[in-house]
Structure formats: C-alpha cells, structure tokens
C-alpha cells in the first residue's frame, strides 16, 4: 500500500510584479494557511516518509511550514526541479521514481498539474485544488512504479476555506 498527498502551495504574493514567478513568496494568508493545514494533517496522524517540493519559493515555503507542524526536519525536504510547471504525466514519472522504502509521500507543487493529476490517478472529480489544498490518494500497490492512471482512490480532500472561520 502506498499513500500520496498532493499539496498545492499556499497563497502567494503578487505585490511585486518584478519578481520572477519562481521567486514569488507566500503572502500573509499563505503563511497562516500552511501551518494550519499542516497541523490539521498532524491531528489526522499523517506522517509522511518523504516530502518532495517544487523549487518555486512558494511551494518550498509551504513544504517547510508543513514539515514544522508535522515534526519533520526541513532539511529532509527533497527539491525536484521538474515539479515546477510539470504536466500530470511528468508528475506521474516523478512519483514512479520514489524509492519503495517510502510508504507515504507528500508532494508540494502547482496547478493545473496537481488538479489534473488527482483526477488522472483516482478518477475522482476535483474541479480545482485551491491554494494550500491537500488531496490524499491511496494505491493498492507494492511499488511506486505501479502508480498509474486510474489506479488510486481519493480518500480525503482538505483545503483552508472549509475552515476559514477558524483560520481568519
């Protein structure tokens, strides 16, 4: 059994239009939502074996905030350059390359790739993974190499707006 969490980066800042997309930081809401969602997962006893992030500042910052809440050393976050702007197919290749010693993986990245990937892997209709949204997909497989289109089951979908009154 393998478990995959797809985490879309938290809300980012558009205040400075001169900043390259890769370098956009989290805004205040993103800095609040990411720890909240990380803590929510901690309360659900989520304990990923590996965290893999896009190199984009907003995704990596989200991963660090989740790691802190989950009690994981931020230095253990693996940055994969090819997550940034990856298609669903490219993301599946990244997942297939995860070492089998890991049973629960958490990926931090971007739309539209993550929303498309959640549909491709599980056939569950998710119209949009909002910022800091988390999708949990389980696979009845022995190896990450067996993860492919339609092979997973979406078992959880969380996002900050569901809890907005308690976040704001």
SSE map:
Blueprint: E1 2-8, H1 28-43, E2 50-53, H2 57-70, E3 77-79, H3 88-96, E4 104-109, H4 113-122, E5 134-139, E6 152-158, H5 164-167
Parallel strand pairs: 1-4, 2-3, 2-4
Antiparallel strand pairs: 1-5, 5-6
Low-confidence stretches: none
For the report, how would you describe the main beta sheet? Answer: 6 strands, mixed
* Average pLDDT, all residues: 95
Shape: globular
CATH topology of the domain at 1-11 and 21-100 and 110-126: Rossmann fold
**Taking strands numbered 1, 2, ... along the chain, how are they ordered across the largest sheet?**
3-2-4-1-5-6
How many β-strand runs?
6
The total of helices stands at 5
Question: What is the annotated CATH architecture of the domain at 1-11 and 21-100 and 110-126?
Answer: 3-Layer(aba) Sandwich
Question: Structural class, from secondary structure content?
Answer: alpha/beta
Write the H/E string, N to C.
EHEHEHEHEEH
Could you estimate the helical fraction of the residues in percent? 25-40%
The first-to-last residue Cα distance is 37 Å
**What is the CATH first-level class name of the domain at 1-11 and 21-100 and 110-126?**
Alpha Beta
What fraction strand?
A: 15-25%
Radius of gyration from the alpha-carbon trace, in angstroms: 15 Å
CATH superfamily of the domain at 1-11 and 21-100 and 110-126: Phosphoglycerate mutase-like
Describe the structure.
- The protein has five helices and six strands.
- By secondary structure, it is α/β, with parallel strands linked by helices.
- It has a domain at about 1-10 and about 20-100 and about 110-125: Rossmann fold (3-Layer(aba) Sandwich).
- Helix 3 (about 90-95) crosses helix 4 (about 115-120).
- The radius of gyration is 15 Å and the shape is globular.
